[in-house]
What we know:
seven-stranded parallel beta sheet, 13 strands, disordered C terminus, two-stranded parallel sheet, 325 residues, Rossmann fold
Amino acid sequence: MPDIxxxxxxxxxxxxxxxxxxxxxxxxxxxxxxxxxxxxxxRPDLAFHLQPLGRVGQIHAVQANLRFPASVQAAxxxxxxxxxxxxxxxxxxxxxxxxxxxxxxxxxxxAAREAxxxxxxxxxxxxxxxxxxLYARSKAAGEQAVWAGLPSATVFRPSxxxxxxxxxxxxxxxxxxxxxxxxxxxxxxxxxxxxFVGDVAEAIARAxxxxxxxxxxxxxxxxxxxxxxxxxxxxxxTTERRRLLVPLPFALAEFDAWFLQFMPKPLLTPxxxxxxxxxxxxxDLARREHRTLQDLGIEPHSIAAVVPSYLWRFRxxxxxxxxxx
Length: 325
């Protein structure tokens, strides 16, 4: 159970990107603990959906953009803890990987240091300065900027995050409704260790509580390792659909993704294809050094225990069979 103490009422947590997929769950976890929440987002008017998660006056949304240092500093002012969740899956307009994921975290770290606040930065498993994917390189650069600005920060690297609003299981379940085939990019051999969004939020909340080490990077993965093919087969079984799984070489997938990237919400981009060339699992080093969910006292939820509870709407029969999440 969360550590709910009266003293938390006087503690302010600023969350950059708090209205997003992971952010909503983090806000809920912190509200249950009694913290005051300042949600720093580009469009505060689109963050009203967070209000029911806390008591009256507990959550306050402010305007902030990681491309503008003054707005970052204003959002951090007076905070005890700062959390950076901002990230993008594809580039659009001025929202570019270098600005948002490489340079932005450094601005947050500098502002947190000047405010005397602790910093929790959420990166991604697979962040690598030598990755062929710009996404992974920008995540690695963001981590380096955080360490340079505030060496006492705590960094979390989650694998693919699943939950009712996720962009992974829902996307492929939706594709299976209309497409007779699903692509096994690179043969479907890439390995993942999907982690439940509620477990990620709990890890972040425990870090806010002071129950995670500082100057440490935690790698967050679920209890099981799945290949891309395993995941697609699970989605088809859960949604009760029969579809052909067709191997698609990386080169051909990248070619197709070049056209798909121009969709308003791309199904796939060339950079995402390059990202799939590397496994996305918790390292042996992180386990040996006790830098995992389990080391934070969290027993991770499995895909089988959670995903069917929200993929039911994609089932061919349309029948809902409740599964405990």
